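Quick review question:
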């Protein structure tokens, strides 16, 4: 076996050879068969769990069971029906349909084998026809032939599962009990992933856990902060804890590219895309929905990339992400996907369609769930050349009742924005002018909690202003809009209180193109990213006053911590220079900055909702001075400690300066003889004893001769 080297040894060796490990393509590193160089792979236990061996070469063959048993005179008719059903899905090979017959009776055996040209066609046939109802007595059961071996391994006699002794694990919420009330965040830089405490009072980041090559692409916190997910070639994994971050579960999904948690962390959606086997085929997409705690696949979805290309804002190879959008608050009861002229809503009790059918909406383009209730809004554009208007509708689930509808005319585009408590819905509508040569923007504001869901039409004073950004105040009644023309648009604030939209203020000519509200509301950052080079304005919306202005040059990302006390700005590897992050207080004071080469990610660890009632939170807010006494004492102690540390640091700097001066004096004395020679025997270093003289020196640079001819 090869000699084992630690990661630190590898880094040292690479540094000595001038190799930057962060630039190494580890997928291209070839390891001899059976050699692991002393490092056990994270995938070993996964391979052990999936040790079943299947007969290869039959992945393009399906077995269709529960067919009618018919005599030989009806054989051709049944074969024709089966061929008609399955030839619509893919190309059946010549002599690729075989229906066995009982030699004694001449009757069919109730099943058949169908061979397609490709594995993808066989998988699609299984997906489309498993459970297909030929008639009341015959419902197809379809399997790929390669799966038969798995069923053959099932023992004839049942044996009780092995009972394993219970071992208590770490409390996954223990990090919330930090005595200092700190928050954690995760960063990725180079090949390292690291979790740290934000110790803002000590103006530093306190390391928690660090691991090289922890993920192969990205990391992601679960919505309530319980898990940290990593992505690997063999699938995804979740880790948890306050300081140890043990692996809690693996989710086998080869070549997984994207993951998404349900809001209540009960389920994990994984997605992969696979190259077509022939140029005529499209990418095949596989989505698995796992139970996060058990790792069990609750349901999978397979199909071409075109089937998953509706809606969403991100993705790959034509797949829009997220494919599934979760609704119903933190209970994880429902999820839905957008299709062609349909919205398919599933419930998680059986992972099947509600009422076994989708909601049909002609030409539907987008939909969006309320963050708190099982209600979604959808948008369908105009049809028939404008004869049938566009519309925004609200649907209640599971009843599928349409709660409210608003028809819209001359619509160019439409976007929906929910307020975090689901109290308001803003629909931004871009409309064509009468000439159809330009557009203008207005808003339809829905008051979801009010009786009959009243709608208010809202337009800016100059309705031709371009809308650059819109954002609701979390847990509040206000919203902000950046509008106008770059490079210095205006920022306006409005309130929904009093049953009618009212304007609070307009800030003129701000270098801003993005809005970042504090999670608790009240405060907002007006940010100028990308072309504005990281301009930051910290604004108090309660007082309508700017608290601070600053800059984080080339900042690419801004993220508030879950408490709204601190905010992080970062420069990722999109830029080659200035990589790293800054931590600021809510009012714009820079607390500390950390530089990291090849910086990829910064993510605050989310916090679950408070267990305190609204009444208790209000009582604490009113008596905050009483509750804050303990923390005031701690702050004073820390302040004294920091002052002592500052004094110690200044003392060290002074000692270093005096040491340097003494070394210089020694060196100066050693060169005294040499200086005396240079000064023609003068030994004094006092400048006043020397006379400065100005000496003019003339130097001939060039001589040229020009011949001038008379006209």
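Suggested answer, residue by residue:
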């Amino acid at each position: 076996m090869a000699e084992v080297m630690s990661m630190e040894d590898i880094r040292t060796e690479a540094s000595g050879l001038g190799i930057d490990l962060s630039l190494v393509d580890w997928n291209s590193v070839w390891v001899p068969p059976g050699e692991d160089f002393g490092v056990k792979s994270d995938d070993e236990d996964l391979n052990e769990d999936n040790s079943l061996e299947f007969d290869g070469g039959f992945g393009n063959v399906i077995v269709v069971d529960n067919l009618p048993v018919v005599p030989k005179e009806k054989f051709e008719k049944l074969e024709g029906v089966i061929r008609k059903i399955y030839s619509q899905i893919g190309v059946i090979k010549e002599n690729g349909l075989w229906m066995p017959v009982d030699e004694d009776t001449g009757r069919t055996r109730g099943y058949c084998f169908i061979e397609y040209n490709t594995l993808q066609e066989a998988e699609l046939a299984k997906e489309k026809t498993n459970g297909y109802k030929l008639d009341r007595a015959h419902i197809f059961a379809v399997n790929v032939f390669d799966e038969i071996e798995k069923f053959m391994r099932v023992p004839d006699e049942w044996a009780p599962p092995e009972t394993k002794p219970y071992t208590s694990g770490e409390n996954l919420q223990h990090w919330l009990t930090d005595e200092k009330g700190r928050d954690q965040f995760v960063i990725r830089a180079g090949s390292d992933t690291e979790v740290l405490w934000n110790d803002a009072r000590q103006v530093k980041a306190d390391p928690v856990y660090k691991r090289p090559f922890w993920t192969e692409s990205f990391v992601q916190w679960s919505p309530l902060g319980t898990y940290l997910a990593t992505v690997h070639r063999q699938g995804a994994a979740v880790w948890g804890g306050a300081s140890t971050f043990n692996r809690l579960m693996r989710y086998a999904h080869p070549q997984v590219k994207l993951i998404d948690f349900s809001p209540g962390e009960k389920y994990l959606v994984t997605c992969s895309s696979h190259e077509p086997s022939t140029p005529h085929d499209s990418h095949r997409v596989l989505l698995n929905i796992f139970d996060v705690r058990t790792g069990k696949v609750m349901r999978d979805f397979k199909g071409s990339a075109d089937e998953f290309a509706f809606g969403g804002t991100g993705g790959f190879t034509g797949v829009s992400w997220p494919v599934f959008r979760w609704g119903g608050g933190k209970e994880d009861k429902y999820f839905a996907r957008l299709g062609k002229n349909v919205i398919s809503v599933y419930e998680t009790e059986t992972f099947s369609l509600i009422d076994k059918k989708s909601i049909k909406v002609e030409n539907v383009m987008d939909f969006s769930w309320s963050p708190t209730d099982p209600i979604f809004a959808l948008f369908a554009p105009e049809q028939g050349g404008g004869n049938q208007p566009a519309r925004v509708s609200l649907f209640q689930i599971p009843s599928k009742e349409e709660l409210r509808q608003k028809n819209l005319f001359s619509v160019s585009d439409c976007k929906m924005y929910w307020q975090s408590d689901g109290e308001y819905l803003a629909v931004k509508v871009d409309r064509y002018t009468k000439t159809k040569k330009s557009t203008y923007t207005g808003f339809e504001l829905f008051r979801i909690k009010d009786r009959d869901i009243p709608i208010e039409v809202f337009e800016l004073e100059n309705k031709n202003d371009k809308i650059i950004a819109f954002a609701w105040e979390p847990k509040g009644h206000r919203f902000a809009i950046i509008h106008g023309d770059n490079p210095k648009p205006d920022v306006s604030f409005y309130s929904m209180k009093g049953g009618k939209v009212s304007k609070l203020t307009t800030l003129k000519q701000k270098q801003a193109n993005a809005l970042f509200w504090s999670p608790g509301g009240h405060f907002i950052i007006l940010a100028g990213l990308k072309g504005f080079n990281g301009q930051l304005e910290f604004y108090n919306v309660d007082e309508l006053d700017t608290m601070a202005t600053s800059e984080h040059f080339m900042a690419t990302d801004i993220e508030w911590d879950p408490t709204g006390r601190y905010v992080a700005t970062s420069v990722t590897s999109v830029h080659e220079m200035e990589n790293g992050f800054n931590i600021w207080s809510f009012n714009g004071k820079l607390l500390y900055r950390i530089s990291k080469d090849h910086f990829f990610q910064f993510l605050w660890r989310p916090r679950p909702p408070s267990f305190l009632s609204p009444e208790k939170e209000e009582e604490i807010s009113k008596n905050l001075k009483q509750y804050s006494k303990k923390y005031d004492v701690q702050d004073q102690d820390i302040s004294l400690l920091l002052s002592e540390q500052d004094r110690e640091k200044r003392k060290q700097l002074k000692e270093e300066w005096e040491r340097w001066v003494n070394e210089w004096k020694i060196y100066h004395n050693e060169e005294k003889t040499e200086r005396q020679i240079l000064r023609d025997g003068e030994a004094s270093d006092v400048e006043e004893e020397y006379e400065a003289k100005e000496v003019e020196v003339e130097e001939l640079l060039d001589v040229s001769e020009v011949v001038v001819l008379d006209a």
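Why it works: Residues 123 and 144 are 7 Å apart (CA to CA). The radius of gyration is 35 Å.
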